[in-house]
Write a structure and sequence with these properties.
globular; HD_GYP_dom; Molybdopterin biosynthesis moea protein, domain 2; 355 residues; 5-stranded antiparallel β-sheet; 12 helices; HD/PDEase_dom; 3 domains; HD domain-containing protein; Hypothetical protein af1432; two-stranded antiparallel ribbon
Length: 355
């Protein structure tokens, strides 16, 4: 199977993975042949990508960080918690803490700790997508930085809740399809303080460090962040991790006013911010683990050949194992051959398909 943009899907293609709503209901089941009626409904639901069956990719496994069950449980709990906060109702932290533990327990058994796009999307709520993706990326980064399991669970809980302050912001601003005005951005900038104020009241139920992650995730190590202009180690180490993954998730995900950036662009942005926006030590570890490619991605080589990424290599995530598909003249390899780019330094990837 392969993951492609909805705009590239056409009637007759077969769905390769169940498509779920944010409440965990199956919208379309794996194996369904897509029709124009289905595609029209998916466009209305703002579905971004689909996993499609393709014989050329049949044996290529696209990894899942989390089981569908854990994803849906996490999204349901997040949705319920955010809704209660928005409606000024009382909410419990226990369910968030429990799902954070479940997420970490699934992630730590993964053989690879390269940081790849999760593919997690609820299709109709950006804040939920962003919070869960940040939790996964931050947990993986914390694992790479040798934090203990209890610390990683605490960090994951904080990442899940880091944007709760946005529930105090008018949804018309959060979901605005254009760039924000200066006044609107000023309102958005209040969400770290609002999130801290909400979470610190729960200090008997969760670590105060979780509240400080919400407060500090927009601080920058050079002191130019907000809301307090903290510098360097004045910023909690948990928040310095989250500052990196928060930006990474934001720029690699779709926004109402722009498309997702390419992974190469995301790499450049994170790298250029080391020592100014981001903690240099944590940032370098993140970049060393950040995968620029993922299984099923179509790539072009410096030789003019085209290939498909088959799998990532643990120690060389930017030199994946690939399947050569076409020669420079466009004729097909018959049969296709597989090579490891790490063992063929004369070959390099020069461009990619982009989800």
């Amino acid at each position: 199977m392969r993951q492609i943009r909805l705009t590239e899907v056409h009637p007759g293609m077969i769905l390769a993975r169940n498509l779920y709503s944010r409440k965990g209901h199956i919208l379309l089941a794996s194996g369904v042949r897509l029709t124009e009626v289905y595609l029209h409904k998916l466009r209305r639901l703002k579905v971004k990508t689909l996993f499609i069956h393709d014989e050329s990719y049949a044996d290529i496994a696209i990894p899942e960080y989390l089981s569908i069950e854990t994803q849906q449980r996490a999204l349901s709990i997040l949705s319920s918690t955010m809704e209660k906060i928005h409606n000024k109702e009382t909410f419990s932290i226990d369910s968030i803490s429990n799902i954070a533990s479940a997420i970490v327990e699934e992630l730590i058994i993964q053989p690879s700790i390269s940081i790849q796009l999760t593919g997690i999307a609820t299709h109709d709520d950006y804040t939920l997508d962003h919070s869960l993706n940040c939790a996964v990326y931050t947990a993986l980064l914390a694992r790479s930085c040798d934090f203990t399991i209890p610390q990683i669970k605490e960090i994951t809980c904080g990442a899940l809740l880091h944007d709760v302050g946005k529930m105090k912001v008018d949804k018309r601003i959060i979901n605005k399809p254009d760039r924000l005005t200066e006044k609107e951005f000023g309102i958005i900038k209040q969400h770290p303080q609002s999130g801290f104020n909400l979470l610190v009241k729960k200090r008997w139920e969760l670590s105060s460090l979780v509240a400080h992650m919400a407060w500090q995730h927009h601080e920058k190590v050079d002191g130019t962040g907000y809301p307090r202009g903290l510098q360097g180690e004045e910023i909690l180490n948990y928040a310095r991790l989250l500052a990196i993954t928060d930006v990474y998730e934001a720029i690699t995900g779709c926004r109402p006013y722009r498309k997702a950036m390419k992974l190469e662009e995301a790499y450049t942005i994170i790298h250029s911010g080391l020592g100014t926006a981001f903690d240099e030590h944590f940032g370098n570890i993140f970049l060393s683990r950040m995968a620029l490619y993922f299984p099923g991605m179509e790539v072009s080589l410096n030789t003019g050949e085209k290939a498909i990424v088959v799998s990532l290599c643990e120690n060389t995530p930017r030199q994946p194992r690939i399947r050569m598909m076409t020669h420079p003249d466009g004729t097909s390899y018959s049969p296709p051959i597989e090579i490891n780019l790490a063992e063929n330094p004369h070959l390099s990837i020069v461009s990619t398909s982009h989800i």
